[in-house]
Amino acid sequence: MHSPAGDVLETELLVFKASLIHGFGGFAKAAIGKGTRVVEYVGERISKSESLRKCEGNNEFIFSLNEEQDLDGDVAWNPARLLNHSCAPNCEAELQEDRIWIVASRDIPAGEEVTFNYGYDLVDYRDYPCRCGALNCVGYIVAEEFFEHVLKGSPRCR
Ligand SMILES: [Zn+2]
Fold first, then answer.
1. What spacing in Å lies between the alpha carbon of 85 and ligand 1's midpoint?
2. Which residues contact 94 (CB under 8 A, 6 or more apart)?
3. How far, in Å, from the CA of 129 to the mean position of ligand 1?
4. Which of 29, 44, 105, 119 has its CA 20 to 30 A from that of 151?
5. Of 14, 45, 47, nearest to 115 (Cα)?
6. CA dist., res. 66 & res. 76, Å (int)
7. Nearest to 17 by CA among 117, 132, 114
8. What is the DSSP letter of 77?
9. What is the pLDDT of residues 59-107, one digit of tens each?
10. Prediction pTM value
11. Residue 29 Cα to ligand 1 middle (Å)
12. Which residue, among 75, 73, 85, 76, has the nearest Cα to 26 in the 3D structure?
């Protein structure tokens, strides 16, 4: 995975440090109100064809921006890529004016780890176990719309 060495380890609202979920995570420095833009998910803007090529190489940090461009967040200057997935997240990734923001979906107390749902589909989901520790954890990193499918233990679908 990614070494946080040399990375940005603090933003206006977050501090990045070891997480019980996985590797490094982002934690609220102070209480964050619902609806706050917690951190921008920055990266390299790439074409759809470049994105397709990178996705085939298993890049898990790509967001769709618009018809022409995707965002590849797998860069050292994007601390938001260290944020962990959770099955019961306190933030969500939102596309606003052609930029990706991690936005608080509820009030977050100081010190709490900031998480969002990575929104993965079911392709090879068994390769992405989830250790978020939420009561409703489904055991794998998938978008909420697939929770039921995964909980039923169905074979992977394409
Ligand atoms: Zn989970």
1. 7
2. 100, 101, 102, 103
3. 8
4. 105
5. 14
6. 23
7. 114
8. T
9. 789 998 999 999 999 998 999 999 999 999 999 999 998 999 999 999 9
10. 0.87
11. 23
12. 85
CA dist 59 and 81 (Å) reads: 12
For residue 88, what are its two tokens?
């019961």
> Residues 118-129: pLDDT tens digits?
999 898 899 999
CA distance 93 to 48: 20
CA of residue 67 to ligand 1 center, whole Å:
31
Q: What type of residue is 141?
A: I
Copy the structure tokens of residue 84.
């962990």
| Cα–Cα distance measured from residue 144 to residue 66, given in angstroms and rounded to the nearest whole number | 22
- The continuous run of DSSP H or E covering 92 comes out as strand 91-96
* Euclidean distance between CA atoms 60 and 54, whole angstroms: 9
From ligand 1's centre to the CA of 21, what distance in Å?
9
Q: Record the tokens describing residue 102, joined without a space.
A: 């991690």
